[in-house]
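Subject: Re: docking follow-up (flavin mononucleotide)

Dear J.,

Thanks for your patience while I sorted out the input files. As discussed at Tuesday's group meeting, I've set up the holo structure prediction with flavin mononucleotide included as the bound ligand rather than trying to dock it afterwards. The sequence and the ligand SMILES I used are pasted below, so you can double-check that they match what you have on your end before we go further.
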Amino acid sequence: MLRHKKILLGVCGSIAAYKAAILVRQLVKAEAEVQVILTASASDFITPLTLATLSKRPVLSSFVQDERGVWANHVELGLWADAMVVAPASANSIAKFANGFCDNLLSATYLSARCPVFVAPAMDLDMYQHPSVQANFAKLRSYGNQIIEAGYGELASGLIGQGRLAEPEEIVQVLENYFAGSGKNV
Ligand SMILES: Cc1cc2nc3c(=O)[nH]c(=O)nc-3n(C[C@H](O)[C@H](O)[C@H](O)COP(=O)(O)O)c2cc1C
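The structure tokens for the complex came back this morning:
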């Protein structure tokens, strides 16, 4: 189902960012083309080298790539993708998406994406339950984005509750279900 599908994977600054490596691995195994966009904060949690190696493509992080003025075109990226997934999605990036902020490559690409967007949040349980975060989820849903709900369990903080990033298998399944139902299977 994911064969030759172009997937933009946004990775945010969360302790769950290591799971993005497993997600990339599974998407590539399913023969999807995966372009990773890391936020600056995400690269504190997982290296671009890991994700570039697994996705077989250079990872993008900033608008401007080097001192020669080579830049990553967020508009083209947004048009290239068949689906955009943000996993893990931080409270910060979710707030940006919900409110039209555009101060990094990931949020600019989000605003440019015409494809369906899937947002898989990960955060501590009190952050997850905060009315502000819940209101931002509702906004994203109102834009037609799909929230892949965080799971329950033990969190990195040691607290137990909802906030664990959905497992990579579940995220892949959501994408497969989307493409199976969209008629975009060729
Ligand atoms: C150790 C550590 C773990 C963090 N985990 C999360 C998390 O799981 N979810 C979250 O929303 N923010 C988390 N944060 C806070 C984000 O990293 C911070 O809000 C950052 O600005 C997010 O930037 P980004 O949205 O550009 O990736 C964590 C911070 C630290 C230091």
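A couple of observations from a first look. The first strand starts at residue 6 and ends at 11. The pocket of flavin mononucleotide is lined by residues 12-16, 39, 41-42, 90-93, 122-123, 127 (CB under 6 Å).

Let me know if you'd like me to rerun anything.

Best regards,
T.
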